[in-house]
Specification:
Blueprint (H helix, E strand, L loop, with lengths): L20 H4 L12 H8 L9 H4 L7 H9 L3 H11 L3 H7 L11 H4 L7 H15 L14 E5 L3 H13 L2 E5 L8 H4 L8 H13 L3 E3 L10 H7 L2 E4 L5 E2 L12 E3 H12 L5 H4 L9 E5 L3 H12 L4 E5 L11 H9 L3 E3 L2 E8 L5 E14 L5 E5 L5 E4 L2 E4 L3 E2 L3 H4 L27 E3 L2 H4 L4 H28 L1
Parallel strand pairs: 1-2, 1-4, 2-3, 4-16, 6-14, 7-8, 7-14, 8-9
Antiparallel strand pairs: 5-15, 10-11, 11-12, 11-13
Helix pairs in contact: 2-4, 2-8, 4-5, 5-8, 6-8, 9-19, 13-15, 15-16
């Protein structure tokens, strides 16, 4: 191990080459190149193989990171992929979009000691992309086929992860989604410069080849009720995610040109996929030649500002009520946005929206914020500074304030489905079962808006719970 690892004392941290800002802002291609094989080996060799691997502890999937780093350092990439894929359904996706600076890399022991973290995400991407190129990634091939079937509502990361795990056990899996493509936010919410769509579509094809069936343009509650789905399947998983945008009130908030983040990103992604998008073509959801103000400080806000730059906006500003240290989004994404010309207006919040007299927004009126004492969550409480108002020119305002659950009992026509006070689905946390027998729930619709990696974890946990439920039912039936 001394030969291949512990090189952090002599080898510095390095990321794959990143395209210059002036080049990458002209297109939507991913901004990072892949590691060369020797560079990936070198960076993996920096791992200290900690006795308590905090990278693994702080990964929602508890990925065996030190193990596959060791194998990568030794040039054993096929084995590295097998170890990675054992705990992560979509390592090629997580390697691209996980906020590693807040999770595994941010808790790397050598990072804490001042040597610079191991570049875990980039190595994960390298290992998996190489596995695809070498043909090592195969569709699921169950050892035996089981007669029970499972219906999954939602083809996002939680639903796909659950479907893959259940299919691996031999269950008959059908995934329903109201959209026309598989992937949920992976397709329509995350821009290509972070996750190119062929990466998602490649994984979709593997799932199809493994025997998972997809029913697209199928809306539960319109095309079939939840009860009707229960009659088709032995168990049902609700993995719809959360799509309802948190609204922003205040004077003038109804003006034209003030749009939700997901509508804006979906239009951009659909256009990139070759769809005809009327709102994009009309300019309603297109930043070209506009002064753009994005409100929010999370990863979705970073996706919006960086998309606006690529669409040819005249100016792009991000308005956030707290400071940089308190923003919820990835610091790496913030740095990328700054490199690409985005201006951040810290400690400022909108108080009103001014229109041009014809009902279209022309400016955002904002007020400066003082950060006071920490609240119950530990974050400093924002307080408006009296008399600090100022105006920002804006032809397009994007609200990136997070997402909330829809009214699922109404949408699914399932009044017996119990929800919490925040409208997430109420589950038994040990079994992920809902208040309706045989119906389970996982992902953001249970935990609230969160990360893709948590959705994958929840989907895998739900699959294990459904397997236990179906096997118990089968034993009971055999005993009768």
């Amino acid at each position: 191990m001394a030969e291949k690892l512990l090189k952090f004392v002599s080898l510095g941290r390095a990321m794959p080459d990143k395209r210059p800002a002036e080049e990458r802002t002209r297109d939507f291609a991913e901004i990072y190149a892949d590691f060369a094989a020797r560079a990936a080996q070198g960076q993996a060799s920096r791992c200290s193989q900690c006795g308590v691997p905090f990278c693994q502890v702080h990964c929602p999937l508890n990925n065996n990171i030190p193990d596959w780093l060791k194998l990568t350092a030794e040039g054993r990439l096929e084995e590295a992929y097998e170890i990675s894929a054992a705990t992560n359904t979509f390592p090629e996706i997580c390697g691209r979009i996980c906020p590693q600076d807040r999770l595994c890399e941010g808790n790397c022991v050598i990072e804490q000691s001042g040597h610079g973290t191991v570049t875990i995400g980039a190595i994960e991407r390298h290992v998996t992309d190489n596995a695809f190129a070498q043909g090592w990634v195969k569709p699921v091939r169950p050892v035996r086929e089981l007669p029970q079937s499972v219906g999954i509502i939602g083809a996002g990361p939680a639903g796909l992860a659950a479907g893959e795990a259940l299919r691996r056990q031999g269950y008959q899996v059908t995934i329903y989604d109201r959209h026309d493509r598989v992937g949920g936010l992976l397709i329509y919410g995350i821009p290509n410069f972070k996750l190119e769509k062929q990466v998602v579509q490649r994984r979709e094809q593997l799932l199809r080849d493994g025997g998972i069936k997809f029913e697209l343009n199928f809306e539960v509650g319109r095309d079939a009720s939840l009860d009707q789905l229960r009659q088709r399947h032995d168990a049902v998983l609700i993995a719809t995610g959360v799509y309802k945008a948190r609204d922003l009130g205040g004077p003038g908030s109804g003006a034209k040109g003030i749009v939700p983040a997901l509508s804006y990103l979906t239009a951009a992604n659909r256009h990139g996929l070759g769809d005809q998008v009327a709102e994009f073509e009309s300019g309603e959801l297109n930043a070209r030649d506009k002064h753009v103000v994005v409100i929010g400080g999370g990863d979705t806000a970073m996706d919006c500002v960086r998309t606006a730059v690529r669409q040819g906006a005249k100016s792009v500003k991000c308005l956030y009520r707290r400071d940089r240290a308190n923003m919820p989004g990835s610091q790496r994404e913030t740095r990328n946005a700054e490199e690409e010309g985005v201006e951040f207006i810290w400690q400022s919040a909108p108080s009103a929206f001014l229109d041009d007299g014809a009902g279209r927004v022309r400016a955002v009126r904002a007020e400066r914020i003082h950060l006071g004492l920490p609240d119950a969550t530990g974050r400093q409480t924002p307080r408006v500074i009296e008399g600090s108002a100022f105006d920002l020119e804006a032809d397009l305002v994007v609200k990136a304030l997070g997402f909330e659950p829809e009214d699922l009992p109404q949408r699914l026509k399932a009044p017996a489905l119990s929800v919490t006070k925040t409208n997430t689905i109420r589950v038994n946390w040990r079994s992920l079962s809902t208040t309706i027998p045989g119906v389970f729930a996982a992902g953001d619709i249970v935990r609230g808006a969160s990360l893709v990696v948590w959705a994958i974890r929840d989907g895998r946990d739900a699959a294990a719970a459904i397997d236990t439920y179906l096997q118990e039912n089968a034993r009971k039936a055999a005993a009768e």
